[in-house]
Amino acid sequence: MKNSPLMTILLALLAISALLSLYFCYTYIRKSGEIRQLEFHVSEVNRRTAGINALMNDVIEYSKHTPNRDIDRLLESFGLTNRPPAK
Q: How many domains does one find in the chain?
């Protein structure tokens, strides 16, 4: 009974299971770090986009109150104008 093939198979399966568990744990930890890093980059992009949108809105409002050809040309180059559409 000491050299039973069933016992050998079960021990081999246990060893394979333990190795796979370690591999999956390592992969999970590594991927979790990558996800956190990507989430940080996404939040930075969203923050910058919000800042640029706020700046552009301020420039449009400024150009409505203080006409300036340079600002108008800049707004037109980005497709933003404060002029009413042509009829």
A: 1
